[in-house]
Structure formats: structure tokens, C-alpha cells
Amino acid sequence: MxxxxxxxxxxxxxxxxxxxxxxxxxxxxxxxxQESAFAALRGLAREGAxxxxxxxxxxxxxxxxxxxxxxxxxxxxxxxxxxxATAVLLDAVLxxxxxxxxxxxxADAAAQGRGLADLADPRCPVxxxxxxxxxxxxxxxxxxxxxxxxSAALGAGELCLSDLCVLWAAxxxxxxxxxxxxxxxxxxxxxxxxxxxxxxxxxxxxxTMDRRRLITKEQQEAGAASIRLFGGSPDRDRTR
Length: 240
Prior knowledge:
By secondary structure, this protein is mainly α.
């Protein structure tokens, strides 16, 4: 919906990745999470089954969430045309989970509730890496906002709504100078969202059979932009 910013100054690889995301119309925090998940799954698919430390952690209750269980199998299949390492790792998780479930089966209702609540958190190592990457990206973007070029890019950038709120909360909890910088960025972001909402309303108005001929390219693009706003906008070409 907005033009891409000029090439941003970047001092290291992390800043290069954040700059690239903004320059290509992606949410930089979404992009950081995706890159972290990709790297973690790639490492697990290559060496996870033989990593004694990881296997020991799994014996103590470490597992995988649903999305990253699937992601691990896809990553291994992509790299090796096999899913053996995935099967080995999930076998270790299943043995631990099965033992816990058997113990709960014979317990009273209160103990079952507590045990099942504990099992609801798989303690996924990929999720942990992704959360850390997200925090790092937010911290770095807050610091980079001191640069006028980055501040302008963040104001015009296609941040997803969830990460815009995360950045906002982090800035609000920061020092006064950071709050002042982010006030300008947020004003620009709110203006962007208001323009998007108006175009979406026009798109909806023209969606009836007798007005579909009036739908513009901008209105169609607004529909896609709204999906990215609520669903996130990492690099769609990167294997997840």
C-alpha cells in the first residue's frame, strides 16, 4: 500500500535482515521469527536425532508444538528425502508423553487436570528460539528508530498489527526519548491503517454484483494487505 523506503543503513547481518524486510514490504518482526524457525528446524533435521543434549532434554519433557512437529518433518524431507530423524525425535517425545498419560489415567480428577495442564505446554525448542528472535528484533528496531531513515521506514513499513502493538508496548515502557520517537512512528502507522480501512470499505461497497466493475486494483491490493496485517507478512518464498 505504501512505497518502499530507500536503502537503510545497516551495520551487521541482523540489521541487514531487518532492513531488507522493511524495504521489501514485509513485517521485520514476522521475518525474524520465520528466519529463526527455519534455522532451528534445519539444525534439528540435520543433527537433532544424534544430539545427546537435546535427547536428554526430551527425556525430561521437552517436545514440539503442532506447527513445528510438521515443520520438522517437512524440513527433513526437503533436505534428505527422508523423515527418519523426525521419527527418532518424535519417538522420544511420544515415549515421555505416553508415560505421563499412563500415570494420569489412574489418578483422581484433580490430579488429571493438573497433569494435563502441564502437558499442554510442549516446551518446544523451536518456539523458544522464535520467541528469543522476536524479542531481539523488537529491541533492535527500537534502538534503530533513533536513526531518521529507520524511523521513516518504520512509520511507512508494512508492520503486522500484532507486532505493531508489541513494538508500541515496548516503546511505551522505555525512556522518554524512545516514547517521543515512537509517537511519530505510530502516528504514521495509524494513518496507514486508516487509509487501508477506507480502501477496504470501498472494496466491500463495490463487491456486489452490480458494482464489481468498479473495483480498482488498489482496492484488491487492500484486501491482500489486510490479510498480511492480521496474518503476518514474513518472506513467503522462504521454506518454513
